[in-house]
Amino acid sequence: MREGARSFREASAFRRPLALTVAGSDSGGGAGIQADLKTFQEFGVYGMSVVTAVTAQNSLGVQRVDNVSPDMVEAQLESVLSDIGTDAVKTGMLPATAHVEAAARSFARHRVKRLVVDPVGAASDGSPLMDGGAFEAMKRLLLPMAEVVTPNLPEACRLLGVHSGDIRTMTDMERLAKRLLALGSRHVFLKGGHWSGEEAVDVFVSAERPGKTKRFVGPRYPTPHTHGTGCTTASAIAALLAKGALPEEACREAKAFVAAAISEAFALGEGTGSLWHGAFAEKRRFLR
Question: Could you say which of 21, 229, 232, 233 is catalytic?
């Protein structure tokens, strides 16, 4: 047999990890399914997407949102999951209650494991991406299915009906993470990007050890160009879970990935610029 034919057959038999994003489209490329697919690729994971909404947005903000029908969201999910399947799923923008219900039905029908829920309620510029009913439906239906939920501080406070001004110390953050765990997910990764201080501190808590928390500490980079950090964090965790990482390991590695992407963030247009998703791999190659 020719060497080329043997190599081709070996490559064809190799199964790559699979990850699916269920989220909105960002025409500016910095967040949503575009950020998720870039992240999956960086981790060597084959990415698939279910589009829940199409946005017209750029570095200045969101100018328009057209929701995809819930039936079409469910049809996309059925198409992918019934044929290809997936090793992990990440959810982002689910605009209305019916979208959340469609996702929950499909996940239950296909026994989806390794679900990462990013409870994204608003875009970086404050534009609402989920209505109140959808947010409550996500809390009720998706969090109990989730392997990891990845709120930032405002999202965590909204989930629990807490005023963000009441969270003043890292001990308060840890209590908040434990309360989030009681909503049903198996792990909580509470992001500290909105927290003040010279370091970026995230809190991880697991249902396996509900009384214990871990702090992941990293540098805080002085840049305004942080569009897509939440999407990228959640999709990095999903990619790592798809590759077989344990949740705590996945969250730690995802934090390092996002920190590298922020460190190489760049201006784009007239407003908030984007992360550079290739930074993590580039830094590793340089260190070698």
Answer: 229
